[in-house]
Design goal:
The protein is mostly helical. The protein is built from 3 helices and no strands.
């Protein structure tokens, strides 16, 4: 499993690579001033990298919080609770927090999947 510092190093390396690519193309072609699709795509890729980093950072923090809530639930949940009877309010509150946090994490994973998909396939770059 990857940790956040390693993920951050990968993101930093990708940003440096995109900046270097942009610089190489700019210096090599010396295009006249104006809008170019290639440079627009580089900028969008850099923005998506920052978005993915922000989401990944949030996921790491959410996972840590979910672990803390799990320990908290274990400490407040009665051991021999009869089936079908509602848990005490303090247990229900922790369970509710865990459920909500899990939903946030699910949305963040889906967003990361979408943003990652946007970053990966550079479709039709040759047409610019």
């Amino acid at each position: 499993m990857i940790d956040y510092p390693t993920l951050n190093l990968i993101k930093d390396d990708a940003e440096k690579t995109l900046h270097q690519l942009s610089k190489t193309v700019s210096e090599g072609l010396k295009p006249r001033p104006g809008p170019y699709g290639f440079f627009n795509h580089i900028t969008q890729a850099l923005e998506r990298l920052k978005d993915c980093d922000r989401i990944a950072k949030r996921l790491f923090h959410e996972r840590k919080r979910l672990t803390q809530l799990t320990y908290s639930e274990e400490s407040v949940r009665p051991k021999d609770w009869p089936p079908g009877k509602a848990f005490p309010d303090d247990v229900q509150e922790v369970m509710k927090q865990k459920s909500e946090l899990t939903e946030y994490m699910k949305q963040d994973m889906e967003t990361l999947y979408i943003f990652g998909g946007i970053d990966l396939p550079p479709k039709n770059w040759s047409s610019y």
